Amino acid sequence: MLIYAESQRYVERMLQRKSMIFHMIEDHTNEQDVFDHPENYRFVSLKIPFRVIEGRTVSSITFDKLRFERNGINYEFLTPKSEHESRAFLLYNEQTKRNNVIINLVIKNDSIFYNPNLVNVFSKIKIYINITSLLGVKVKGNSELYFTNPEQIEGDGTNTYRINSANFTLTEMPKITHI
After folding, report:
1. CB 131 within 8 A of CB 63
2. What is the pLDDT of residues 57-95, one digit of tens each?
3. What's the pTM value of the predicted model, to 2 decimals?
4. Could you write out the DSSP letters of every residue in the chain?
5. How confident is the model at residue 1 (pLDDT cuts 50, 70, 90)?
6. Segment 115-154, tens digit of pLDDT
7. What is the pLDDT of residue 51?
8. How far, in Å, CA of 139 to CA of 134, rounded?
9. Distance between CA 25 and CA 108 in Å, rounded?
10. 179 vs 176: CA distance, rounded Å
11. Closest CA to 106 of 31, 40, 24
12. DSSP codes, 74-90
């Protein structure tokens, strides 16, 4: 898992279009304030590897909520009220042969959740996720990731976390959606 500064061009596009479809906001954040005063916020991207099971091709991945845990304190990110879902970018890295999802997070400048100048220690992340296959089968569940925290900040200011274990729990039975 990797946490790094979001590309400035994507931040500008989000502000120009006033659409947070690829973003999640920190709990208790006023969505309109992000558009009115973007200088009061930090924009980071979260890259999480994922595995396709049994050759099923993924059409889309959306997040309902993200919950990070540090020292018994939860930091939650939610879909903005103006959006019905938070879409993740699906990336396949040709060099490493890995699939990744990328979701962008909007964080208040004064938040203690993430500081780009420090090693940010978390014990786990819980992802409330929806995965839809190309055939229109939607699976809804929770994924918990447990990882080793970084020992240093990478040269480009990122924090890289090694995932040690993960589990996935269905919260609803799979269903066929309208394509």
Report:
1. no
2. 778 899 999 999 988 899 999 999 999 989 998 888 788
3. 0.87
4. -EEEEPPHHHHHHHHHHT--TTEEEETT--HHHHHH-GGGEEEEEEEEEE--STTPPEEEEEEEEEEEEETTEEEEEE--TT-S-EE-EEEEETTTTEEEEEEEEEEETT-SS--TTS----SEEEEEEEEEETT-EEEEEEEEEEEEPPSS--TTS-EE-EEEEEEEEEEEEEEEPP-
5. confident
6. 888 888 888 899 999 988 888 899 999 999 887 777 666 6
7. 67
8. 12
9. 9
10. 9
11. 24
12. EEEEE--TT-S-EE-EE
Q: How far is CA 15 from CA 4, 40, 116, 121, 154, in A?
A: 19, 13, 22, 30, 28
Q: Which residues contact 51 (CB under 8 A, 6 or more apart)?
A: 99
Q: Which residue segment(s) compose the domain that 80 sits in? A: 2-176
Structural domains in the chain (count): 1
Tokens of 153: 């900040």
